[in-house]
């Protein structure tokens, strides 16, 4: 085993920084519904999620092995390539956090790694079969499966509980929400913390610090677990607001159904080594639970923005990763320039976030009204005004009815005929 080089140390620190952003970016996945329904106080919720993320990091290394051994050709990867990949992933995480969009940290990391690997060694450095079967297909299938499961579970819970409505029932579902949120947090640590483990392990192999094909060392598992737990405790309040109140309105039994469905899907995928997006799964489950309640709604404008972010995540992070890799190939000064750019861009995004502070005191807010759709707006723009429309400064005089007889015509002004009306 060779000693650490400076670039390898930089990569490890950057990977842990990404893990930290992953933690606060994805806190909403476990705790948004629990906070929005009042099942737990915000600070207590994120503290519990942080602790379980750390525990989950030690449960499996299958996803880490998918990253370090399967996605790219580890024999042709330099530590600088992994550093460039992390730059793309971190910047995408921060941008989507700034606007409160729950995009996939996992896919940001995958995209950055793919873009940097292609820029360094060509398309042959990426294993297309692994990308399709363990990344892309789960990305499409997982939110659909979790959404359908949450929809069915929500309808069953309402159907079975029609005669048991009351405060005791609501308390029972709130307790169930706490348990299911704990399960999601555990699953998140099992799946997402492993991605950083895989990246660090890949960097150690590329730098000659450990042998090819090695599993993540214990210190890598511990440091990745601690980083994601700390990020989770900080709390990604912007995304918690979007997931908790911006996507749909949830009652405790809906939150319980959504979180249980999501946790089941995540734990199953982690066991199979699928690099699943926790964000995709939980978002799909929340939408399914929103549709499962009679009279429930999904704010499709928010869902559409989320979908656009999902679609853009892989290519956007890949482009940034490829650009960063092109600069690092210029030498040590190129790597230093990329590092400075990352720090400066991160600081700029943080300053922008201070213009509207969202924290545990205002994370549960009334959602904005659903804006008019494109079709509705277009119809309103071309529709003619209603017949007989009256403008603000136009008055019309309605004459009194004509007299029925000559006697009425000669009657004095104080007759019973109604006066003219002005509108």
Structure description:
- The protein is mainly alpha-helical and 423 residues long.
- The chain has one domain.
- Helices cover 69% and strands 1% of the residues.
- The protein has helices at residues 6-36, 42-56, 62-71, 79-98, 105-121, 128-160, 167-206, 218-234, 237-246, 252-272, 278-292, 300-328, 332-353, 374-382, 406-409; strands at 397-398, 421-422.
- A two-stranded antiparallel sheet has the order 1-2.
- Helix 1 (6-36) packs across helix 2.
- Belongs to the inorganic phosphate transporter (PiT) (TC 2.A.20) family.
- Keywords: Membrane, Phosphate transport, Transmembrane, Transmembrane helix, Transport.
- The chain crosses the membrane at residues 6-24, 44-61, 81-101, 108-129, 135-153, 196-213, 219-240, 308-327, 333-350.
């Amino acid at each position: 085993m060779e000693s650490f080089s400076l670039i390898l140390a930089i990569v490890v620190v950057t990977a842990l920084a990404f893990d930290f952003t992953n933690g606060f970016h994805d806190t909403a996945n476990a705790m948004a519904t629990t906070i929005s329904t009042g099942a737990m106080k915000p600070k207590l919720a994120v503290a519990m999620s942080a602790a379980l993320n750390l525990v989950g990091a030690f449960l499996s290394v299958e996803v880490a092995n998918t990253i370090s051994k399967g996605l790219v050709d580890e024999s042709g990867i330099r530590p600088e390539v992994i550093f460039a990949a992390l730059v793309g992933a971190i910047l995408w995480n921060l941008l989507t956090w700034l606007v409160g969009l729950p995009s996939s940290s996992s896919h940001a990391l995958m995209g950055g790694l793919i873009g940097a690997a292609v820029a360094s060694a060509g398309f042959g450095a990426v294993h297309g079969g692994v990308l399709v079967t363990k990344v892309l297909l789960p990305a499409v299938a997982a939110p659909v499966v979790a959404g359908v499961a949450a929809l069915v579970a929500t309808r069953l819970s309402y159907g079975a509980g029609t005669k048991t409505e009351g405060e005791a029932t609501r308390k029972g579902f709130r307790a169930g929400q706490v348990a299911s949120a704990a399960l999601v947090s555990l699953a998140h640590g099992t799946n997402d913390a492993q991605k950083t483990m895989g990246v660090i392990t890949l960097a150690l192999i590329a730098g000659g610090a450990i042998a090819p094909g090695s599993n993540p060392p214990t210190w890598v598992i511990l440091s990745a677990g601690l980083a994601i737990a700390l990020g989770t405790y900080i709390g990604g309040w912007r995304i918690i607001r979007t997931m908790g109140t911006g996507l749909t309105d949830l009652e405790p039994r809906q939150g319980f159904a959504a979180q249980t469905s999501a946790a089941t899907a995540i734990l199953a995928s982690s066991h199979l080594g699928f690099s699943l997006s926790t964000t995709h799964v939980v978002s799909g489950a929340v939408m399914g639970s929103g549709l499962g309640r009679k009279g429930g709604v999904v704010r499709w404008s928010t869902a559409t923005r989320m979908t656009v972010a999902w679609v853009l995540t892989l290519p956007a992070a890949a482009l940034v990763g490829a650009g960063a890799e092109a600069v690092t190939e210029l030498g040590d000064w190129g790597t230093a320039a990329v590092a400075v750019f990352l720090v400066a861009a991160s600081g700029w995004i943080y300053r922008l976030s201070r213009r509207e502070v969202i924290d545990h005191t205002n994370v549960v807010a009334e959602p904005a009204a659903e804006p008019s759709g494109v079709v509705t707006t277009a119809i309103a723009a071309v529709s003619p005004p209603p017949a007989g429309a009256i403008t603000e400064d136009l008055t019309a005089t309605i004459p009194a009815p004509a007299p029925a007889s000559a006697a009425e015509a000669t009657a004095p002004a104080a007759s019973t005929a109604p006066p003219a009306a002005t509108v």
